[in-house]
Amino acid sequence: MDKLTAGITRLDLQLSQGQLEQFMTYYHELVAWNERVNLTTITGFEEVQIKHFLDSATVTLAFQPRTGIDRARIIDVGTGAGIPGLPIKILFPSIELVLLDATSKKAAFLHHLKQELGLDNVEIIVGRAEEVARRTEYRERFDIVLSRAVAPMATLVELTLPFCAIGGILIAQKKGGIEPEVSQAERAIALLGGHPREVKRIMLEEFSDERYLVIIDKVSATPEKYPRQPGIPAKKPIV
Ligand code: SAH
């Protein structure tokens, strides 16, 4: 796990032997399950270390100091094979984590992996964000909402900000030329109770492309009517 270890060090984080073994198990299970369930197109050993595990760890750059993460209640919306939520759970075992995805086959993998990694305080939910965000036990209950590669910004904020507690933050991982996407989402962000804090470029030599964290503070309650019915946030984004 040299690639991951080197990158993690550059992020000012550390990996114990136990955590390294968990990432090894994660890699092997991911590749094995990927034969049957469509989880990822990234399967090379070094590639997974960088593009999945290290990339997940970069969300910690949203925190200065890092201590804010330890006791956080976190949800990863559209987690797929657990990215970025599960690597964050491995790095910060004391967090409370909810992994949400609409696909039950992916959830089956996550249940299996949770078992293999011996993780507690990880809840796996199969469902649409549009519906799950309406349940009182999940609405505005999270300190940190994470999401990578799920939807364009205006759609994404409708799927994610309703989960975020007032005073909490949304960290969306985005790639390349995102300026227009972010400015187009301004109205949606404000309407859903968000306030843009920062668009932070990830500066790590491991990544040759442009990667960003779009960080949004939740400053006021999301109005009752959001999120709209499943599919609507994507079909008719708030602009
Ligand atoms: N975050 C992962 C997966 C990205 S693929 C990664 O970066 O690797 C997008 C995932 O979001 C898919 O697994 C899909 O099932 C899920 N998804 C898309 N729209 C969703 C919605 N409205 N509610 C819940 N999950 C959704």
How would you summarize the topology of this molecule?
Layout: H1 2-10, H2 17-34, H3 45-57, E1 73-77, H4 85-91, E2 96-101, H5 104-117, E3 122-126, H6 129-132, E4 142-148, H7 153-160, E5 164-175, H8 179-184, H9 186-191, E6 194-201, E7 211-218, H10 232-235
Parallel strand pairs: 1-2, 1-4, 2-3, 4-5
Antiparallel strand pairs: 5-7, 6-7
Helix pairs in contact: 1-3, 2-5, 3-4
The chain binds S-adenosyl-L-homocysteine (SAH).
Residues 78-81, 83, 100-103, 106, 128-130, 148-150, 159 line the site of S-adenosyl-L-homocysteine.
Which structural class fits the helix and strand makeup? alpha/beta
Query: Overall 3D geometry?
Result: globular
Total domains: 1
Tally of separate helices: 10
Report on the architecture of this protein.
By secondary structure, this protein is of the alpha/beta class. It has a single domain (2-235), classed as Vaccinia Virus protein VP39 (Rossmann fold, 3-Layer(aba) Sandwich). It is 37% helix and 21% strand. It has 10 helices and 7 strands. It has helices spanning 2-10, 17-34, 45-57, 85-91, 104-117, 129-132, 153-160, 179-184, 186-191, 232-235; strands spanning 73-77, 96-101, 122-126, 142-148, 164-175, 194-201, 211-218. It has a 7-stranded mixed β-sheet with strand order 3-2-1-4-5-7-6, with helices on both faces. Helix 1 (2-10) runs parallel beside helix 3, helix 2 (17-34) packs antiparallel against helix 5 (104-117) and helix 3 crosses helix 4 (85-91). The protein starts with a helix and ends with a helix. The relative contact order is 0.13. The model has no long low-confidence stretch (mean pLDDT 97). S-adenosyl-L-homocysteine is lined by residues 78-81, 83, 100-103, 106, 128-130, 148-150, 159. Residues 78-81, 83, 100-103, 106, 128-130, 148-150, 159 line the site of S-adenosyl-L-homocysteine.
